[in-house]
Automatic annotation (TrEMBL):
<dbReference type="Pfam" id="PF00333">
    <property type="entry name" value="Ribosomal_S5"/>
</dbReference>
<dbReference type="InterPro" id="IPR013810">
    <property type="entry name" value="Ribosomal_uS5_N"/>
</dbReference>
<dbReference type="GO" id="GO:0009507">
    <property type="term" value="C:chloroplast"/>
</dbReference>
<dbReference type="InterPro" id="IPR020568">
    <property type="entry name" value="Ribosomal_Su5_D2-typ_SF"/>
</dbReference>
<dbReference type="InterPro" id="IPR000851">
    <property type="entry name" value="Ribosomal_uS5"/>
</dbReference>
<dbReference type="Pfam" id="PF03719">
    <property type="entry name" value="Ribosomal_S5_C"/>
</dbReference>
<keyword id="KW-0694">RNA-binding</keyword>
<dbReference type="GO" id="GO:0006412">
    <property type="term" value="P:translation"/>
</dbReference>
<dbReference type="InterPro" id="IPR005324">
    <property type="entry name" value="Ribosomal_uS5_C"/>
</dbReference>
<feature type="domain" description="S5 DRBM">
    <location>
        <begin position="21"/>
        <end position="84"/>
    </location>
</feature>
<keyword id="KW-0699">rRNA-binding</keyword>
<dbReference type="InterPro" id="IPR014721">
    <property type="entry name" value="Ribsml_uS5_D2-typ_fold_subgr"/>
</dbReference>
<keyword id="KW-0687">Ribonucleoprotein</keyword>
<keyword id="KW-0934">Plastid</keyword>
<dbReference type="GO" id="GO:0015935">
    <property type="term" value="C:small ribosomal subunit"/>
</dbReference>
<dbReference type="GO" id="GO:0019843">
    <property type="term" value="F:rRNA binding"/>
</dbReference>
<comment type="similarity">
    <text>Belongs to the universal ribosomal protein uS5 family.</text>
</comment>
Length: 172
């Protein structure tokens, strides 16, 4: 990496930190690695970041202390931030399906005032994203991390579909 790209990356990080993102912990687990000398205990943190206006990111990190793991996960979360379009009724534009490993999630728009009908990590991510009227159903694995990534992939795919729709409208 040359010096210019490092400077640009630092500028991007500073701009993201100025966003004042809200953070919610999805999961903190104790992870142990068995070695010849004994067990090494680390902590893994999974965090959702968002500004409640459509920007969301997910961070995951391990460290010897929970506080350090949370801080590392925050910095990793800043790197994955995406800008997701939220409708005027604080919902999503259309139904979306996301998959990650053995987890599958279906997210549908709901009527205004119905709230977030979702469980586990999906509820946390949708709250942080600022989506208030939505229904989500998880299939397959009950793993919070996999379900979080499945929802994140669904939201990313939705952004791609919206861009394709705009391009089609421009060409016709």
């Amino acid at each position: 990496m040359n010096k210019l790209s490092k400077i640009n990356n630092n500028i991007k990080k500073l701009n993201l930190k100025k966003l004042k993102l809200k953070e919610r912990i999805i999961r903190i687990t104790r992870v142990s690695k068995v070695t010849k000398g004994g067990k090494r205990i680390n902590f893994q943190a999974v965090i959702a970041l968002g500004n409640e206006k459509g920007k969301i990111g997910i961070g995951i990190a391990k460290a010897k202390d929970t506080r350090d793991a949370i801080e590392k996960a925050k910095t990793n979360g800043y790197k994955t931030i995406i800008n997701f379009p939220v409708t005027k009724s604080l919902s999503i534009n259309h139904s979306i399906i996301g998959e990650y490993k053995s987890s599958k999630i279906l997210v549908k728009p709901a009527k205004p005032g119905s709230g977030i009908l979702a469980g586990g990590s999906a509820r946390i991510i949708l709250e942080v994203a600022g989506i208030k009227n939505v229904v989500a159903k998880q299939f397959g694995s009950n793993n919070r991390l996999n379900n979080a990534y499945a929802l994140f992939n669904a939201l990313k795919d939705s952004i791609k579909k919206l861009r394709i729709d705009k391009l089609r409208r421009l060409n016709n």
